[in-house]
């Protein structure tokens, strides 16, 4: 294998093996020792991921979190993760339950806190311990528990939100966590502020941001929206008038910046809004409830971060079921959770709905979704689901 006289080694590796589907790489690891080592080499895996993203539409697959009722009543829902693929040829799609690592706590409630290049970030709901944040590669079933925070808070402190992104400049996965920190003042009792820390996969450690302006805003649990082009987007509140706002946080600095909103829109309802990537731009999806129907407006920003202007691209009128917008997939299809407890895909060009088939009846307002691309990126953790 290593000295094939008929095929140059660089041609075999660069032009053939790096273009194989990730499932083939997993299978071919057992061909020989050289291929096993090659398919675990970080440089090879980086080239493989670059080729995959270049030659595939990475918005065609979705990971979907849903909650289902149990016999124990409210507050004891069973959270599950599903994969939704675009390979179905007819107008209906089936969501298939996906394996996920177990949290150390007994609760099954978890949040999807971002996805990038095949790596999924999960955190347990309402639990501030850092060991309950997990990075997970569903394709290889490798997972990694994040280490404990280096910050020291009082027991009443709470980790409000977690967000994850990938920095192509440093080839590193980053996790941002915002704390509502209760700390001892200089002899004047306890004061409450927002604190921010950043995790780096390359160093497997947390770093506290000392100059963050997070204290100027109010954050709620599950306020992370998305990460796109090295910028994190967050839902927040103005500290003075408590109005809902959008914040942008660039990977290059530690400063939250307000994103100007389109004129005269309401983003106060968490279930009636979504920030999603559509046609290589950040889009804002807003629902407006009328007397008997609901409409959806979709805005696209020209620019990124806190700069740029919004343009309303289209409106979806007269929806009988109240929707919760999730994200775009398959190009121009908007995935939504409907008040009838069904997941539907709406084609904005053909203006028609398609059903997503799910076994059971999910709890209303329990859905989260991220666009997903499978990859062989390794977390170097040694932990795998069997």
TrEMBL record:
One Pfam family named in its UniProt record: F-box
UniProt superkingdom: Eukaryota
Domain F-box: 7-48
Classification via Gene3D superfamilies: 1.20.1280.50
InterPro entries: F-box-assoc_dom_typ3, F-box-assoc_interact_dom, F-box-like_dom_sf, F-box_dom, SCF_F-box_component
Annotated protein name in UniProt: F-box domain-containing protein
Organism for this UniProt entry: Crotalaria pallida (Smooth rattlebox)
């Amino acid at each position: 294998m290593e000295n094939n006289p008929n095929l140059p080694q660089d041609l075999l590796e660069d032009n053939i093996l790096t273009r194989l589907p990730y499932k083939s790489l997993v299978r071919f690891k057992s061909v020989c020792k050289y291929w096993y080592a090659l398919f675990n080499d970080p440089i090879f895996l980086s080239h493989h991921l670059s080729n995959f993203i270049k030659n595939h539409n990475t918005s065609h697959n979705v990971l979907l979190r849903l909650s289902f009722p149990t016999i124990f009543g409210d507050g004891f829902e069973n959270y599950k993760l599903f994969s939704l693929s675009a390979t179905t040829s007819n107008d209906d799609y089936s969501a298939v339950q996906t394996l996920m690592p177990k949290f150390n706590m007994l609760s099954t409630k978890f949040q999807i806190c971002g996805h990038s290049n095949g790596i999924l970030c999960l955190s347990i709901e309402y639990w501030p311990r850092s060991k309950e944040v997990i990075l997970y590669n569903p394709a290889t079933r490798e997972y990694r528990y994040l280490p404990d925070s280096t910050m020291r808070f009082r027991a009443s402190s709470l980790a409000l939100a977690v967000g994850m992104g990938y920095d192509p400049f440093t080839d590193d996965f980053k996790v941002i966590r915002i704390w509502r920190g209760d700390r001892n003042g200089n002899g004047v009792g306890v004061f409450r502020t927002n604190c921010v820390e950043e995790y780096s996969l390359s160093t497997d450690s947390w770093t506290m941001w000392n100059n963050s302006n997070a204290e100027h805003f109010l954050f709620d649990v599950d306020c992370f929206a998305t990460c796109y082009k090295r910028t994190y987007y967050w839902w927040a509140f103005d500290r003075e008038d408590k109005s809902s706002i959008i914040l942008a946080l660039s990977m290059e600095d530690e400063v939250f910046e307000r994103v100007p909103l389109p004129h005269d829109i309401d983003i106060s309802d968490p279930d009636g809004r979504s920030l999603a990537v559509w046609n290589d731009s950040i889009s804002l999806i807003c629902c407006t409830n009328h007397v008997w129907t609901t409409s959806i407006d979709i805005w696209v920003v020209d620019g990124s971060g806190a700069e740029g202007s919004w343009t309303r691209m289209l409106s979806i009128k007269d929806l009988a079921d109240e929707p919760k917008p999730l994200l775009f997939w398959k190009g121009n299809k908007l995935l939504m959770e409907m008040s009838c407890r069904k997941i539907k895909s709406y084609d904005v060009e053909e203006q028609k709905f398609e059903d997503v088939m799910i076994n059971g009846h999910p709890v209303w307002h329990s859905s989260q979704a991220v666009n997903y691309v499978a990859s062989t990126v390794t977390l170097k953790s040694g932990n795998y689901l069997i």
